[in-house]
Amino acid sequence: MAAAEEPAKRRTGSSRATGRRPAGEPRHRPSKGPAWAMRTASEQLTELLGRSPDSISSLKPTNDGWEADVEVLELERVPDTTSVMATYRVSLDKEGDLVAYERTRRYTRGQIDRRG
Would you tell me how many other CB atoms lie within 10 Å of the CB of residue 109? Predict the structure, then answer.
């Protein structure tokens, strides 16, 4: 058998160099830290409300997962400072599933928070 007809041998080495993982190796799961919790809360609230969050103003770990306060544009007006915003409190379990949400506040975008 000529050398050209022999099957090519696969090189073994680090999968990090090629960016591929070896067959059978589990896919690396991203850490379930604050950035992950913010993305997860934002995505699920968008799905429920049909509106994209404007920002996340608070995020804290709890014994059961995460709790976030998410700011959402509810009614767009001109000028922008008169648009109606809302704060939603979102609770996620440890797996990132939204288990509860509630609107805790409505305000105009230009309003300054005078609490505490």
Answer: 17
